[in-house]
Design brief:
Distance between the termini of chain A: 23 Å
Strand content of chain B: 15-25%
Number of domains of chain B: 2
Transmembrane segments (chain A): 20-40, 86-108, 120-144, 150-171, 192-218, 251-272
Structural class of chain B: alpha/beta
Shape of chain A: flat
Subcellular location (chain A): Cell membrane
Pfam family, one (chain A): BPD_transp_1
Strand content of chain A: under 5%
Shape of chain B: globular
Largest sheet of chain A: none
CATH topology of the largest domain in chain B: D-Maltodextrin-Binding Protein, domain 2
Distance between the termini of chain B: 51 Å
Number of domains of chain A: 2
Number of helices of chain A: 15
CATH architecture of the largest domain in chain B: 3-Layer(aba) Sandwich
Largest sheet of chain B: 7 strands, mixed
Protein name (chain A): ABC transporter permease
Membrane topology (chain A): Multi-pass membrane protein
Largest interface: A-B, 36 and 48 residues
Oligomer: heterodimer
CATH superfamily of the largest domain in chain B: Periplasmic binding protein-like II
Helix content of chain A: over 70%
Chain lengths: 287, 429
């Protein structure tokens, strides 16, 4: 199983290459993990400790006080907000993935009038920052009477030009025309072919798109800020920001909130990681 | 279909926003009406929560129910939302606005004129603060909190160094020079706060940069008060007697905690913040507050921040909204617990936590006195928030000694005229 034992000697990397690779990887790991470490350390500190003590060393233990402050500042809504973020991101991720893959499939495999124009429009959408669309979207959703509902966040988040773009790429690379022709000859309808055959082939790609949309929705800040009023509907990003927008925030409490709120994301990534790996290599070793 | 609905909403707003007086009839005689109130109060740990204050009103007024919503973003983001809300016809009746934002929102047609409704209430509030909620003689809401400049200092350190508490700008400069000789700073020059903090000082010195006459704005920073403030800071920066640090940077807080900074000119609302920054350090119980040393001929101070609650354009029940507005903003002690220095007249009780940090001093009586001596002449122009960038840039340069302090004020003038011109407002030459 272990690949190194089976690699012929001529293909093994030289010791120098191996050393350099390790050094670069360790440096990258440190670079990426250092902020997380800083976050863990800082979330245990009080405001004066944050200023007066070394940022990379633990000072007084203020964990419980920070947690109490976090609960008080969020009026006990903190975990509800984390749940909201999970809900919005999951629903938007699932629906958005389905939309992206089917749109990508249609663009890649069907001939239709104006296809080039549609592709161009989607690519154009890729360049459009979502922040620019938020205010028009708000007025639009207000007309529909959907502001201050979960749909005001979920529906716009389902639409991902990048997801469609990725979906098209994955279909191009991973779904051979021959297979579709064969299934048509065997009498499978287009809908059945899509749901039973194409989606199965695209599973790794879908995980990739799902994670992209999930993270984008989780991080989207301006949309819920504009759309939502009720404290019960806020996602966690918005709630934590509400603690920061005043002059003298309880930094330790906010940082603890930030730390606790990324835990679901970390778990999700660990679970879906192996799918993502195969997703990124899809089509890379086509004979 | 959505577009059609949105368009209907837009037309709906323009149609009814002209007649708020008649829209009060929408509620039937026995139905209760709902007033929405959008705010940015911190609502933090140990404070009397906004929801609890409102609950008291709602119990007493079953026919006028108030829903308060905390807006989580910055002030500028809240303006964006309010403008979108007014266009969409779904705006909250009441919204918290910074004093400098009021003229901007007013000229953009986002606020209701409630001058008549306000008549019965304005006497409950500090006149200087009411003036800041009034544009062109039209009152648009009621003031909530104020930020008169005061002087905070470490009394124990002052005593140890043999310094007297300054009552004039010249005495403050002398104390600062003496403290510098002992390696301490008795003031800090704060480039990031240049816009309101420095303009507030010029107001204290008697300046009134902005005046509106015959429908035209004039901008003038060439008065004696502004020159006095400029020369005060220039002297201290040239001799390196003042700390130069951003107010909201770590360097400032660090200097407070390790007692290199033993005095600072700050807004009244900084009293709990300074106490919070220095909590648990040797500074506890050592600090004190006095009114701002006089920069001009009389005991006067200038505004540095503060906000009011305005009635937004399209509010269906302005009379009830103003009734609540008056009630809410005269709930002095709950608002004090939110960290505010309230604009309403009446005694503010100093919270125990603040009292103990300031050595048992009745801090809020000093702040209330400062409120009373707020300059009534210093008003803001529409678009004043846009002046911030240029002033801060000039203040950074002045703090580093690469440009004179007076440049900050000339930058303010240039930038203010540009802001007025770009808003299409007439400027007197």
């Amino acid at each position: 199983m272990a690949p190194t034992t089976q690699t012929p000697p001529s293909l093994r990397p030289s010791p120098a290459t191996l050393a350099i690779t390790r050094i670069v990887l360790i440096a990258a790991a440190v670079l990426f993990l250092a902020p997380v470490y800083w976050l863990i350390v800082s979330s245990t500190k009080s405001n004066p400790d944050l200023i007066s003590s070394n940022g990379l060393l633990f000072a007084g233990n203020n964990i419980v006080e920070n947690y109490t402050a976090l609960m008080s500042w969020t009026q006990g809504n903190f975990w509800r907000w984390v749940g909201n973020s999970m809900l919005y991101s999951t629903v938007a991720g699932v629906l958005g993935t389905l939309v992206s893959v089917s749109a990508g499939y249609a663009l890649a495999k069907f001939r239709m009038p104006g296809k080039a124009g549609i592709q161009l429009a989607i690519l154009g959408g890729l360049l459009m920052p979502i922040a620019l669309l938020t205010v028009p979207l708000y007025i639009f959703f207000n007309g529909l009477g959907l502001t201050n509902t979960i749909w005001a966040v979920i529906i716009p988040s389902c639409v991902s030009p990048f997801g469609v773009f990725l979906g098209r790429m994955f279909v191009d690379a991973g779904v051979p025309d021959e297979l579709l022709e064969a299934s048509r000859l065997d009498g499978s309808g287009e809908v059945r072919t899509f749901f039973t055959l194409v989606l199965r082939l695209l599973a790794p790609a879908m995980v990739t798109i799902f994670l992209f949309i999930f993270v984008a929705t989780w991080n989207n800040f301006l949309l819920p800020l504009m759309m939502l009023n009720s404290a019960e509907l806020k996602p966690v990003t918005l709630g934590l920001y509400g603690m920061m927008s005043y002059f003298s925030p309880q930094y330790g409490a906010v940082l603890q909130g930030a730390l606790l709120s990324v835990i679901p994301l970390v778990v999700l990534f660990f679970v879906l990681q192996r799918y993502w790996q195969s997703g990124l290599t899809a089509g890379a070793v086509k004979g | 279909m959505g577009i059609a609905a949105a368009a209907t909403m837009l037309f709906g707003v323009t149609a009814c926003s002209t007649g708020p007086a008649t829209s009060g009839e929408e509620a039937g005689p026995n139905e209760s009406i709902t007033i929405d109130y959008l705010h940015r109060l911190p609502d933090g740990e140990g404070m009397t929560k906004v929801a609890d204050i409102i609950a008291e009103w709602n119990t007493a007024h079953p026919d006028v129910q108030v829903t308060a919503t905390k807006f989580d973003g910055k002030a500028a983001e809240m303006l964006t939302k309010l403008k979108a809300d007014v266009k969409a016809g779904s705006v909250s009746c009441l919204a918290q606005l910074g004093y400098s934002e009021v003229p901007t929102m007013y000229t953009e047609g986002m606020l209701e004129n409630v001058t008549d409704l306000a008549q019965g209430y304005v006497d409950n509030f500090s006149a200087g603060a009411v003036a800041l909620m009034t544009v062109n003689g039209e009152t648009v809401g009621l003031p909530q909190d104020t930020g008169p400049l005061v002087y905070y200092y470490n009394a124990a350190e002052f005593e140890r160094l043999g310094l007297t508490v300054p009552t004039t700008a010249d005495e403050l400069a002398a104390a600062t020079t003496a403290a510098a000789a002992a390696g301490k700073y008795a003031v800090a020059f704060q480039p990031d706060e240049a816009q309101y903090w420095l303009s507030g000082q010029t107001a204290a010195a008697g300046a009134a940069w902005f005046t509106a006459e015959d429908g035209k704005w004039s901008v003038d920073v060439s008065d004696a008060g502004t020159a006095k403030v400029a020369s005060f800071w220039q002297g201290l920066i040239d001799t390196k007697s003042t700390l130069v640090a951003n107010r909201w940077g770590d360097e400032f807080k660090q200097a407070l905690v390790d007692q290199t900074l033993i005095g600072t000119i700050g807004a009244a609302w900084e009293a709990p913040l300074l106490a919070g920054d220095m909590a648990g350090s040797a500074n506890e119980g050592q600090w004190a507050v006095v009114e701002l040393p006089t920069f001009g001929a009389t005991q006067m101070t200038g505004p540095d921040g503060g906000s009011g609650v305005a009635v937004m354009k399209g509010c269906a029940h302005p009379a009830e909204a103003m009734d609540f507005n008056n009630w809410f903003n005269t709930q002095i002690d709950p608002l004090v617990s939110q960290g505010l220095v309230v604009a309403a007249k009446g005694a503010m009780t100093t919270p125990d936590s603040i009292k103990s940090f300031y050595g048992g001093q009745d801090v809020f009586s000093v702040l209330a006195a400062a409120n009373e001596s707020l300059s009534p002449d210093f008003i803001y122009i529409p678009g004043f928030p846009a002046v911030n960038g240029d002033m801060v840039k000039a203040a950074d340069a002045a703090g580093q000694g690469t440009a004179p302090v007076m440049d900050i004020f000339t930058a303010a003038q240039t930038s203010a005229i540009a802001a007025l011109t770009s808003a299409g407002l007439p400027v007197a030459k």
